[in-house]
């Protein structure tokens, strides 16, 4: 008997998945995003897409024993292909389904030695919580409530493709 996915698996991952529906596939021959220098906040600004390998590994680890990953994998991969993050000064917009979910942030501490900024994050409902962003070149790790999501920097053109795909109705195999 298969065990259903428990609601507490990972609120952050579940929230990300609830925002997503995929159709955009990555292409290794694409233009690479320009390197960003400056303060940690300046390095954090830009366009980001989920690190698919990291997200899938995490998802697999959090599945209850006996849960069949093969049944869920196509849907999760489709969703990840549409997700994009747009980070501007003091604002973050997560695109996944529809026009995007806006949050704001205020940096409270910056630690160049660990490449980490601590910030107060205000979600769309007005709830404020503390989170961190670790910037390591073209990788951004956002952590909140002990849950982390890893993103890779993408070009503006890649971001626009994902943003447009996110505004289209979800097309899940077998449910069109």
What does this structure look like?
- By secondary structure, this protein is α+β, with helices and mostly antiparallel strands.
- It has one domain (11-24, 40-166).
- It is 27% helix and 32% strand.
- The protein has 5 helices and 8 strands; from the N terminus they run H-H-E-H-H-E-E-E-E-E-E-E-H.
- The chain has helices spanning 11-19, 40-44, 52-62, 69-80, 156-166, and strands at residues 46-50, 84-88, 91-95, 101-111, 116-122, 128-136, 139-144, 147-154.
- It has an 8-stranded antiparallel beta barrel with strand order 1-2-3-4-5-6-7-8.
- Strand 2 and strand 3 form a beta hairpin.
- The two termini are 28 Å apart.
Tell me how many strands there are. 8
Helix content: 25-40%
The radius of gyration is: 16 Å
Count of runs of 4 or more consecutive helical residues: 5
Shape: globular
Structural class: alpha+beta
- What is the assembly state of the chains in this entry? single chain
Search tags:
disordered N terminus; 27% helix; alpha+beta; 5 helices; eight-stranded antiparallel barrel; 176 residues; single chain
Quick recap of the structure?
With 176 residues, the chain is an alpha+beta fold.
SSE arrangement:
Layout: H1 11-19, H2 40-44, E1 46-50, H3 52-62, H4 69-80, E2 84-88, E3 91-95, E4 101-111, E5 116-122, E6 128-136, E7 139-144, E8 147-154, H5 156-166
Antiparallel strand pairs: 1-2, 1-8, 2-3, 3-4, 4-5, 5-6, 6-7, 7-8
């Amino acid at each position: 008997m298969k065990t259903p996915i428990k609601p507490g698996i990972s609120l952050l991952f579940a929230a990300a998945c609830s925002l997503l529906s995929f159709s955009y596939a990555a292409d290794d021959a694409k233009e690479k995003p320009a390197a960003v220098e400056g303060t940690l906040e300046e390095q954090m600004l830009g366009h980001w897409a989920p690190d698919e390998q990291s997200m899938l590994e995490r998802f697999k680890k959090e599945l209850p024993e006996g849960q069949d990953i093969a049944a869920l994998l196509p849907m999760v991969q489709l969703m990840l292909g549409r997700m994009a993050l747009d980070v501007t000064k003091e604002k973050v917009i997560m695109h996944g389904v529809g026009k995007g979910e806006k949050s704001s942030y205020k940096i409270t501490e910056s630690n160049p030695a660990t490449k980490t900024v601590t910030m107060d994050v205000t979600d769309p409902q007005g709830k404020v919580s503390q989170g961190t962003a670790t910037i390591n070149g073209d990788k951004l790790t956002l952590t909140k409530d002990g849950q982390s999501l890893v993103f890779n920097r993408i070009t503006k053109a890649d971001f626009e493709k994902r943003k447009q795909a996110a505004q289209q109705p979800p097309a899940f195999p077998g449910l069109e």
